[in-house]
Write a structure and sequence with these properties.
This protein has about 150 residues and is mostly helical. The protein has helices spanning about 25-40, 45-75, 85-90, 100-110, 120-130, 135-150.
């Protein structure tokens, strides 16, 4: 800091550098009342409707955001891999409660079933199906599809 002209406390004047304009306090109430009168001249309809318009804009924005969110969430990633014929066919499949009913149904349709006790590979298949909890209707469909492709 450059202290070329140091001032002492005694050299500083005691006068206040701030001044109030003439007649400031006498004219102050009149100026305040004049400002209030100009604010009262604003249209009252605008002051009444301003909150209503803000609220309407808020609801419109929320509704638009909700609509866009539903559109994004509701889109399926992939189309269904099953068509109506597949769905209708599964509704009419017979329900079997045990292996004997399956064998009887296959024999009734003309499908020969090998002896289960003599074929080790068939036993392995049956054990696999039982472990994986695959239902009999699925097994019948697979066997029918296999017979259809073998006839061609």
């Amino acid at each position: 800091m450059n202290n070329q002209n140091p001032k002492k406390l005694e050299q500083i004047s005691k006068e206040t550098p701030f001044r109030v304009p003439e007649d400031y306090f006498e004219k102050f109430p009149d100026r305040v009342m004049e400002r209030f009168k100009t604010k009262e001249k604003q249209p009252k309809i605008l002051t009444i409707l301003k909150p209503a318009f803000s609220l309407a804009a808020l609801f419109t924005g929320v509704a638009l955001l909700a609509y866009l969110a539903i559109q994004v969430i509701d889109k399926p990633a992939e189309q269904s891999q099953f068509n109506q014929a597949d769905i209708a066919r599964t509704n009419y499949d017979k329900k079997f409660s045990n292996e004997e009913e399956i064998i009887d149904a296959l024999e009734a349709e003309g499908i020969q079933v090998k002896d289960q006790g003599k074929n080790k590979k068939a036993d392995q298949y049956i054990n696999y199906l039982l472990k994986e909890d695959i239902d009999y209707g699925t097994l019948i469909n697979e066997l029918e599809n296999k017979n259809d492709t073998s006839k061609e």
